[in-house]
């Protein structure tokens, strides 16, 4: 299961971003190029495990987009992209994003109270992004049916669980200066 994802992850180079060991992978960086069979494998798997009784698939610019878009094409469910720039439209919601290596602002447009969304992103690490996003959606009265991350690392999951959000992580990895190791695969027990 998820053979292409696992095989490609263990080949990922690791660089330093400050103190943070940052892995580089097609799904989370678009570097090197993205093999469409990899995206196919991942979106097929997400379609099987996610609650897709939703109005829209919600992802965060930039690197959630390839997988979320593949899922949208497969299922016919619309795609909503949380952007890193404002549009100043009525109802736009602004939130602060913090990762292990960056800080920024995200902007939600196109959602209203009562909407049901599944969140699909490429990586969860510190949980800073998903935590801020889930809080903002809860404040808007948007229902989150599921949170899916292709790759998980670090202790962000614990913070998310405290908020009542339990993401489904396809592959959990450990990242060190030596490289990437697979720790867990969703559904393998
Ligand atoms: O759990 P966290 O520590 O918050 O890290 C996860 C976030 O980091 C990446 O986004 P990034 O802001 O680097 O943007 P990108 O998708 O444009 O690379 C990734 O797409 C997640 O959204
Ligand atoms: N590509 C990539 N994206 C991330 N998002 C959060 N952590 C990481 C990381 O180590 N690599």
What order do the helices and strands come in, and which of them pair?
Elements: H1 3-9, E1 14-17, E2 20-23, H2 26-29, H3 36-49, E3 56-60, H4 65-75, E4 79-82, E5 93-98, E6 103-108, E7 116-124, H5 128-140, E8 143-152, H6 156-162, E9 168-176, E10 179-185
Parallel strand pairs: 3-4, 3-7, 7-8, 8-9
Antiparallel strand pairs: 1-2, 5-6, 9-10
Guanine binds next to β2 and α2.
Protein name: Hypoxanthine/guanine phosphoribosyltransferase
Subunit structure: Homodimer.
Pathway: Purine metabolism; IMP biosynthesis via salvage pathway; IMP from hypoxanthine: step 1/1
Q: Bin the helical content.
A: 25-40%
Q: What's the CATH C level?
A: Alpha Beta
Return the CATH architecture: 3-Layer(aba) Sandwich
How far is the N terminus from the C terminus? Answer: 12 Å
Low-confidence stretches: none
Structural class: alpha/beta
The outline comes out as globular
Proportion of strand residues: 25-35%
Query: How is the quaternary structure best described?
Result: single chain
């Amino acid at each position: 299961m998820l053979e292409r994802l696992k095989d490609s992850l263990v080949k990922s180079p690791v660089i330093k971003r400050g103190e943070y060991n940052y892995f580089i992978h097609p799904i989370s960086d678009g570097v090197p190029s993205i093999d469409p069979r990899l995206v196919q494998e991942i979106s097929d798997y997400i379609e099987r495990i996610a609650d897709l009784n939703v109005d829209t698939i919600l992802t965060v610019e930039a690197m959630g987009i390839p997988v979320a878009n593949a899922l949208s094409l497969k299922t016919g469910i619309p795609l909503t992209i949380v952007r890193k720039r404002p549009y100043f439209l009525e109802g736009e919601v602004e939130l602060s994003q913090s990762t292990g290596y960056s800080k920024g602002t995200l902007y939600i447009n196109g959602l209203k109270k009562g909407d049901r969304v599944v969140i699909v992103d490429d990586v969860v690490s510190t949980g800073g992004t998903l935590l801020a996003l889930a809080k903002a959606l809860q404040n808007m009265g948007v229902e989150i049916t599921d949170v899916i991350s292709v790759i998980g690392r670090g202790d962000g999951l614990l913070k998310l669980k405290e908020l009542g959000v339990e993401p489904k992580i396809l592959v959990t990895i450990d990242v060190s200066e030596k490289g990437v190791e697979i720790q867990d695969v969703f559904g393998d027990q």
